[in-house]
Amino acid sequence: MQGFRPKGDEFLVILTGAGISAESGLGTFRDKDGLWTRYDLNEIATPEGFARNPKLVLDFYNARRRNAREAVPNAAHEALARLQRDWGGDVLIVTQNVDDLHERAGSGQVLHIHGGLEGALCAACGHRWPAPAAMAPADPCPVCGKPGTRPDIVWFGEIPYHMDEVWFALRQCDLFVSIGTSGTVYPAAAFAQDASRAGAYCVEINAETSAVAGDFDAILIGPATRAVPDWVAGMLAVRNSAA
Length: 243
Ligand code: APR
What we know:
Layout: E1 12-16, H1 35-38, H2 41-44, H3 47-52, H4 54-70, H5 75-86, E2 91-95, H6 101-104, E3 110-112, E4 115-122, E5 128-130, E6 149-153, H7 163-172, E7 175-179, H8 191-197, E8 201-206, E9 218-221, H9 224-242
Parallel strand pairs: 1-2, 1-7, 2-3, 7-8, 8-9
Antiparallel strand pairs: 4-5, 4-6
Helix pairs in contact: 5-9, 7-8
Bound molecules: adenosine-5-diphosphoribose.
Residues 17-19, 22-23, 28-31, 34, 96, 114, 180-182, 184-185, 206-208, 210, 223-224 line the site of adenosine-5-diphosphoribose (APR).
């Protein structure tokens, strides 16, 4: 990152997308044979689709929950957990992913702006609880008893979670890094612009340049399990030499 000379105590905000979990065997959405090339997102990932056919939607997320539970964190998740542990400043991970591989790699400070497969939500009363392995349309909410329970996932047309905290962090951070996202879904696709406008240096780490590559000061192309550990090693080397 020729234009950015970290001292080792900067505030880092790291956005992750499906690409960071791809090498753990979890599908991405828009790559060749990605999820949205095999399913109609209007049927699967919208409140209207859920209202039309709750069983179709719950079965889809039951399968993704099963896959996520069987997957293991990869070298990229582990490198970010190492960075959060050893860096001299705050490292906030903002993820679009609904798997819990960051947490299982040892990361704290993870904001899931699109929710998570391990959460269940009652569409009737708003109660949240840990999701069972499989959800069914007749499942009663543990609090209000009504059916209509759903995965605690943010669908298209719904408001992402934690956005006040994210916007604040983007305005405060010194370095913004985006990993494994196509930069096609907002608000996350605008995060680099917001951070850059507030003075942050922005880096994109991805298998290929994203739709918002022009918003970044540096772009590192490669598979996450190689590019992310390499980048983290470089950052921690700076930290150690500055210490
Ligand atoms: N290493 C690094 N990057 C990778 C890898 C890999 N091994 N494999 C794929 N990628 C990159 C792809 O090049 C692509 O740019 O990851 C990106 C995945 O893009 P998408 O499939 O669009 O996933 P994402 O950007 O996370 O989607 C954003 O869209 O459908 C919604 O809610 C869903 O959170 C999701 C959001």
